[in-house]
Amino acid sequence: MEGVKKSQVVIAEPKTDKPTSAASGNTSPSAQEVAPSATIVRSKRIVEAAKRIVQGSYPYPMFLVPSETTGVVKGLALILCQYGDAPERIAAARRALSWTLKAQPSPEMVVLVEAQEEGVPYVFEDIKVDAYIQKRIPENSKGCWKKEALWNIGAAEALRNEHIDKLCFLDIDCIFADQAWATAVAEALDEYEIISPHEYMYYAEQEDAVSLGLQISAGGCLTQRSSGCYGLPGLSFAMTKDFFVNRLHRQLPNICVGSGDTYLWTIVAGKGRFAINSTQFAHTLTTTELEGMHPAVKIGTAYQVAVHCNHGPFGHRCYRPRMVISRAAAPTREEATELNEDGIPVWKDTPGGRILRQGYPELLKLAKTELPTTITARDIYDRLAMQEYGPIDEDHPFIVACMLRSGGKYTEKHVRWLKRQFDLHCKAPFIFYCISDVEIEGINTIPLLLSNTDAPTWWGQIEFYRNIWPANASVLTCDLDTVIFRDFTPHRCPENKIFMLREQGNWNKSVWAIWGGGLTYFNGDYSFIFDSFKADTETGAQRSPLYSTIASQEYVTSCLRSKGIVPEDVESHFCYSYYQGVVTSIRPEAHFAIFASDPKPWDILPRPCWVPPLDEPVESTISEPETKESASEKSDTKEPSAEEKTDSNADATK
Q1: Residue 341: pLDDT above 90?
Q2: Model confidence pLDDT, tens digit, residues 284-328
Q3: Which letter, b or e, does each residue of 100-112 get, where b requires 16 or more Cβ atoms within 10 Å of its Cβ?
Q4: Is 503 within 8 Å of 645 (Cβ atoms)?
Q5: Which of 626, 293, 269 lies closest to 470 in space, CA to CA?
Q6: Spatial distance between the Cα atoms of 112 and 131, rounded to a whole number of angstroms
Q7: How far apart are CA 502 and CA 507, in angstroms?
Q8: Among 60, 129, 196, 443, which is most buried by a count of CB atoms within 10 Å?
Q9: Is the pTM of this model over 0.90?
Q10: Cβ contacts of residue 117 below 8 Å, gap of 6+?
Q11: Maximum distance among all alpha carbons in the chain?
Q12: Residue 273 and residue 271: Cα distance in Å, rounded?
């Protein structure tokens, strides 16, 4: 065939006796006139051939299967997009287009959207397609991921054609091995609402991706299994016009650092079917997003083989580090970007948007010369967050607070154990306090005011919200079982803001709570929480906090909302990771390891190297703040962690 290289494998498929509507010129969708079994049989033979290819020598060659039929698949539009002018990516795209645009039968319409920065020439003006759309990238969009947004622009153009009722989105640097892919996709969309056109994919001519082999797609996996599967979400998906318009509201989700495909399959199928690791996604997902769509969506595949054209080292894409910097800067999707009047995503003028606008391009630039890790990404974020929020200094002190009520399973040695960790890992001046009903040698102690009857176990954390902290102080509260995983340099907490752990989407045992109090960060006067607790306790009966709420953090959030205050994810200031039953569950970029239930860190055997011994010599190093005496004379403090809520032992007190 013309244009075939020696490294390409071309397999000639025998002509089928069954004509397609594309060949006969029928104006109805081709899938209605082609027996599904004939198309699927052909497709599965190609899949088997692909399996043999990836079992051979590597790097794996391109794989092309010519078609014996011609014509047009009515009603189907192919949507492609390109942004940027990186030579390797342009070369890969052109190579893929040389095959994709020779589809036989061909889709009824092909739309190509190209976006370039001001002053950069468009590179695909010579490509012959049915609709070619040019967009300019504004200054406040540089570095932002745009693929799905550009696909949406292309889909809107395609749907101006009233005959189009099926949409296929394909990465411009990828191909379907079968030249007759359009027929198979159209057939599948007669049965399903959304599909992965390909059942399997592989990276061609790319040595550093050989170990990945032949990977199953999201749609392919969901077709084979009803639950608990994870297939590669990207490269391509296709859907009916009805699904795109009425279920997605004409918008494929665009994530600021990529992974919109992962998000799409998550909201469509739900975490129960599509086994996303939500703790490693670009944003924190809600329970509704993780549940999937209702009514359930018909999901399938067209049994194609997709092939990715090499455009540079695989590691340069730094998928996981991208997620880390995004999750810290913008815990929710809406915080990072918005669409301008031209449909192009632009960075929002928010703290997270400003940090990502600098940090994401810096990460990608670094990836061209080395392989950044998730720790690298978090360190980039922390450095930019320091610039955004400001450093700790004498006028903006950093206070660490914990709580101990005597008589439970926690003792003075747990307080000292926690402080030793801050002495070792905190790289900014700090003042350490314990609010307790006992004096602790070597520790600044503030007396508890609430009785054990009124505020047992973790409920004593309500006292974090007394009015005892200096003005402009950034206060970090910790549970006594918190492990500091690596060094960190805190920056200021924004004024009149409060940040908490987010359990949903981060801790696999959380079923009833969104927020956790095991690590909180605040700056401002929240004494109304303590005052409200005392008043509700004195009133008693059904006003009692112990009656009306499950744990202290639930009471705290209800008080906050009564004042129009919404807690935010503390991830923007400290990276945390929940212990999920195995030591490897703590993410390497984490500053803090959170133990919300049993076992506690000192109970893990063998003890991980990152868990310090509980019984070490105590060094008495009290740091005396100038406001310490006045602080202990006041009578209002603030409440942090209730991570112990899952610990059934009533003696669990922080």
Answers
A1: yes
A2: 999 899 999 999 999 999 999 999 999 988 767 788 999 999 999
A3: bbbbbbbbbbbbb
A4: no
A5: 626
A6: 6
A7: 8
A8: 196
A9: no
A10: 136, 137, 142
A11: 93
A12: 5
